[in-house]
Amino acid sequence: MRVLVAEYAHESNCFAADPTTRARFEEGDLLTGAAALDAHRARTGVVSGFIHVLEEAGHAVEMAVAASAFPAGPIAAEFHAWVADTLRAAAEDGPWDGVLLSLHGAMAVEPVAGNPDPEGALTAMVRAAVGPDCPIGVVLDPHSDTSDLLLGAATFTLAYNEEPHRDVHARGREAAELLLRIAGGLRLATARRRVPMILPAINMATDEGPMHDLHEIRARREAEPGIVDISLHGGFYGSDQPEAGFGVVVTAEAGAADPAAVAEAMAAEAWGRREAFLVD
Fold it and tell me: Do residues 131 and 170 make contact, with C-beta atoms less than 8 angstroms apart?
């Protein structure tokens, strides 16, 4: 298999005045091609999880771009265009047997009003380049919003399960393992249910409190036959985008479980705990 990998991750506060420029990404992580692949092979993040599983299984991995920066204002339009062009060029250099993307789910790009869903648009761009049959997996931060465009363009999405984010490498590995299962014939069905609330980041810790309780339920439901993954997206408080808010995305083996019913039940559990998320 030949698999394309990329990371473009930024938590963008739409209400912050200063844009996140290329210089901010250079201070964080900004690499392309073989240099990006070599650097992330030695790390323990999402992308390293992709790389380790795929290379351990003997598959060829190529990396388009690795770009991440500290949370701040919306990304400068010029830099975003450069990343998109870099990713598009790589995606068009197929054929590819799979694509794995490490995004955030709370990205904003200047002008915010003109870019309502930049990560959905990026994923759709990759889909258009690689064709309808190439599996695309996307890993997201839990402080994220989900969109119809992104979910429709991706074959599957996973979110981290822990806050603090101690499971990023594990989730990267799980995404790569799921990609290999799809290559082996696994068919998926997914469903999302939204809840009309955006959680305060200060009360999303998973070691205790209401999010801990939701994840205990998630783990039990995830163990049910046919359920592949349940991801909880708390929504991002700094988002000023149409589909911002809490969402549950359930991925199941097609025909083996009903992801919509599980998503509905998890959404009800979250809504029932809404007051517990309030912070004085």
Answer: no
Write the pLDDT tens digit of every residue in 92-116.
Answer: 999 999 999 999 999 999 999 999 9
Q: Which two tokens stand for residue 177?
A: 């393992």
Contacts 24+ apart (CB under 8 A), 171-174: 171/46, 171/49, 171/139, 172/45, 172/46, 172/47, 172/48, 172/49, 172/50, 172/53, 172/100, 172/102, 172/139, 173/49, 173/50, 173/52, 173/53, 174/49, 174/229
- Listing DSSP states for 137-188 in one string gives EEEE-SS----HHHHHH-SEEEE---SS-TTHHHHHHHHHHHHHHHHTT--E
pLDDT tens sequence across 236-261 = 999 999 999 999 999 999 999 999 99
Question: Is the peptide bond between 164 and the residue preceding it cis, with omega within 30 degrees of 0?
Answer: yes
Inter-residue contact 102 to 43 (CB < 8 Å): no
Peptide bond into 200 cis (omega under 30): no
